[in-house]
């Protein structure tokens, strides 16, 4: 499903060179570009953060806003360059990375209408994931893939678990609303559900907490349940990871006679029909 | 122990057809019925939730109540239909799903006497579990069973663990009641036990917290204990899940020609020399 | 190290009979005794709890106190009976169960001097563990042993882990005391250490929380650390449990020729010297 | 990379003797030195703690300060002795243990300028790790190494995980700042990020908590995410620990007489028929 965005071999030479600088990190120029991008993103995120601090905003607001527009312009230019350089602009624009690149610019424009949206520029942080490759990360990519693979393999189990948790949280939330009688912060069912989530995940802000004896009893049951069922997602992911580590990797050769796959790594003959592999 | 509720083969034709629509999702009609039910449940739960929000209730209360009664009537009709269609109405009514179906109607009637009980209609959420089959869930059912099986296999261990936690919580609760001298929210032993549950599960609302030096010391010990023993249920479930996964993958047959072992479970020929096993 | 407390075979007959009733649950009489004890303990714990609730105490205080003394007298009699019946009274009195039996009486006497200590009678809860055998618990004992064995096998790892956590908590506590400048609840190093425990265990009451920017940054680091290192005790216990499950149990027979142990469970010959076992 | 600091064999005899007393615990004198050091450290840490408690400081402040200076002088002398005794003073001074030894003295001097820094003397707690060897800790060292090895082997996975958490926390923090509109404690993006850390780690102080419906919804999602992804570091460490434990236990040799397999790794004879393997 990954659509090739690298320029074809008969694309103009400058395009292929620019692509390798902007999109890859194999050449010295490409590496330098990525490192520059890395620091630019970090700085621009820092500027957005500082701008949100009132005391700093009051003193340096105008300067910060200029710097912010400078960074936004830079990223806009970079985005255009990426669009020009790739083989299929639309494929890039609609890829996850392309969407993040786009979202890193657009809040600045939206801020002309709705002031607060400027702070969403912080989504640029996600762009850091793109340039992680500048670190020595043969390791990191592999390890990241290990985690993602394990999570992906357990996605159905986790969804079943989350469905059960959500159902539980809705039912307990309504129960607490009735038990506490709309008092003590349990002012509506949605709010009681929010409380149930805060409780079952063991976050426990304490902004809402039961005051009746029955409510505290029910809450205790929910807490102990939450404490026990944390074991479920942990068990799922751990068992998956442990299994990924110890699974014998099969030889991915297809028998030309019976089409059997999954031969032992050291197999010389097909396990199903006995034909020489 | 599962008692067959599907109409026998010599039941009238309309009954068998109705059963397959209402109880199954294999036919297009059955699927459509389940999808309609799914949205009806979601909507009716939403209405109950909205009704509990005061500002919404004040404005749209009467309308919401009409809609709610409409849904309740619908579910009552559906319940009757299910009773009529099954082979043994009592077996259905006493099955877990049948009880949930019943409890999805009854709070509306109870609300005529006790107003607050109306909100318990939210128990309809549990009915969603019934119609989960409308999604592609060959996967989901299997994964759900995997989780349930693992929990079932560890039920004795988890009960032992919970007994130990309960005993600990009662003893520490009473101790804190004595140490804090009935002050700082520790106004009775049951309340102190509630605090101990809040603490050992790491929820930590902060509505009750120790103020004396001795109390804070004791609380610290309880917290670190709670932090450490979370490992126990997690370990139990994880070890169980890991064990369920690891099945013997090799056939323990020795090739009579080359004496190779560790063949695939379904192998018919030796992977090393190709001889018939 | 377990010292035999069962009366010797030439003890008077009534003593052996009484022992089997009081200490064992194999005979119908022994079972009845244990069941009676079970309910007596539950009731007496309930009475202590109720007594601590002020509104109940004001109304029924005198009655509850009478009932409590009745139960205490009962347990005192039972303790005496146990002392009389066993072979070595001192061995019983100093065994863990004997100490718990003793502590279930003594707070009532201490209460004559220091009123609050009466509530420590709740330690009777621990006696419930003694009579768990009245349930069908071939299972429970085995499962409990599995958990205890796993924890025992990991005790050194857990102690190393706890030492590291304690050191971290002390250092971070002092650091926060300096950073927050004795303000915002961080009024002394011991109190700051209490805060650090509350934070690293993810309990988070919120009775003390950092207000300075530096303090919040440091707290964030501590939280993420606490979030990550919860993995350590969990990993230790889980790995231990998984290993206990899959470890091949060896035949505990010593070869009479070469003294080798750890033979395969189905071994007929010594693995080291080939001698018939 | 470990540079040898033990005096060479042709160093003066007193130096070698002093080294074995101060740095090692194999001789009776060395053990006595370590035990004395252990108690000195504990006492000096206790003094620093007591000094930070205001009520105690007001009464015994001057005495405590004298004791503190006495301990500091002692540790300074010990540090000098270590410098004199080792082969390469610089190598020792720059080793982790050497740095900790140095940091255990320097805050006392810094306190002449900046009063609060005196409390950093508590860093002496870390020195306890040095003298842990005085306990029987053949076990402890091994177990500690097991934990450290497992964490070291999973360091890349954990860093990937932490990068993902940090990115998530920054983005969600900014989102909440916009959603709550700078109200309810979300006064700046850094503060909102602090809140996000408090929430995703399930600490949940409650000093900042969302009040808008949208904010509470977003917070619920974050909490459930935090609840689920705790499974990731746990899975990583557990799978690593489980893998380190599972060593191949059987010898894959086939007995030429009875064709039995799965012999002990060090077996010389067949366990089934006793034949020489």
Report what the structure shows.
The structure is a homotetramer of 277-residue chains. Chain A is built from twelve helices and no strands. Chain A is mostly helical and 277 residues long. In chain A, helix 1 crosses helix 2, helix 8 crosses helix 12 and helix 9 packs across helix 10. The radius of gyration of chain A is 27 Å and the shape is flat. Chain A starts with 12 loop residues before the first helix and ends in a 31-residue tail after the last helix. At the A-B interface, helix 9, helix 10, helix 11 and helix 12 of A face helix 2, helix 7, helix 8, helix 9 and helix 10 of B.
Topology:
Four copies of one chain form a homotetramer.
Chain A: H1 13-23, H2 28-52, H3 54-85, H4 89-94, H5 96-103, H6 106-110, H7 127-130, H8 138-153, H9 155-180, H10 189-200, H11 213-229, H12 231-246
């Amino acid at each position: 499903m990954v659509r090739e965005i690298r320029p074809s071999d008969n694309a103009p030479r400058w395009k292929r060179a620019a692509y390798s600088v902007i999109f890859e990190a194999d050449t010295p120029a490409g590496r330098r570009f990525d490192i520059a991008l890395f620091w630019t993103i970090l700085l621009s995120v820092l500027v957005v953060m500082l701008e949100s601090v009132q005391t700093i905003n009051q003193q340096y607001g105008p300067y910060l806003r200029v710097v912010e527009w400078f960074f936004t312009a830079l990223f806009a230019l970079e985005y255009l360059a990426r669009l020009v350089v790739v083989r299929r602009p639309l494929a890039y624009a609609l890829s996850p990375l392309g969407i993040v690149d786009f979202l890193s610019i657009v809040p600045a424009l939206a801020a002309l209408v709705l002031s607060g949206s400027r702070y969403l520029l912080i989504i640029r942080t996600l762009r850091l994931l793109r340039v992680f490759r500048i670190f020595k990360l043969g390791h990191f990519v592999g390890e990241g893939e290990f985690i993602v693979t394990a999570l992906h393999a357990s996605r159905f189990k986790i969804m079943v678990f989350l469905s059960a948790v959500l159902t539980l949280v809705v039912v307990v939330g309504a129960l607490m609303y009735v038990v506490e009688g709309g008092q003590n912060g349990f002012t509506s069912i949605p709010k009681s559900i929010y409380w149930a989530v805060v409780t079952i995940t063991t976050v426990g802000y304490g902004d809402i907490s039961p005051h009746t004896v029955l409510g505290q009893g029910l809450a205790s049951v929910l807490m102990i349940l939450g404490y026990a069922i944390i074991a479920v997602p942990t068990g799922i992911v751990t068992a998956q990871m442990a299994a990924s580590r110890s699974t014998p990797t099969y030889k991915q050769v297809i028998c030309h006679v019976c089409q059997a796959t999954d031969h032992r790594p050291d197999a010389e003959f097909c396990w199903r029909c006995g034909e020489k592999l």
